[in-house]
Amino acid sequence: xxxxxxxxxxNEEFVQEKKYEEYRTTKFPDKRMVILTCMDTxxxxxxxxxxxxxxxxxxxxxxxxxxxxxxxxxxMRSLFVAVYELNADEIYIIxxxxxxxxxxxxEGIIEKMKSRGIDQSTIELMDYSGVxxxxxxxxxxxxxxxxxxxxxxxxHHPLMDKKVPVHGLVIDPTTGKLDVVVDGYEEQKxx
Length: 191
Description:
Beta-carbonic Anhydrase, Chain A; alpha/beta; single chain
């Protein structure tokens, strides 16, 4: 049985037995916040549990490394929608220790692309089109500095409501312990 068929088989049972009922909520976050975090599999259940959140409490946006690499990209758009349309009053950017983005090297990813059939001419076309793959695929050296950089990008964005606190944290993916990098409340007091 393929993975898709396995998922669809389970889903049919899930719906028939009305297992969805315990997850019913609205599209608005009860805790009025949005989290940007990493797509790491260890955080899928750990992060909400470590922060005492249940289904419906928060909006969660995920990206590799919890990185915002463009001020007008999809991640920023998601944060704006959460704030301006879905009633999020606070933003939390949460990176994690032992992040895969800390070891990502663009040349390694490009080689893996080629080994899966992406042609060298396509890779060269990216550069010609104005996409610097080395910059776009680059990881980071220090998760704390990466979180701080993303917090600064959000906090100083010209379209962001200045009354919205933007917090930065780093979570341990083994224990769930949170370390504060930027306290958004303190940053607002110091403005």
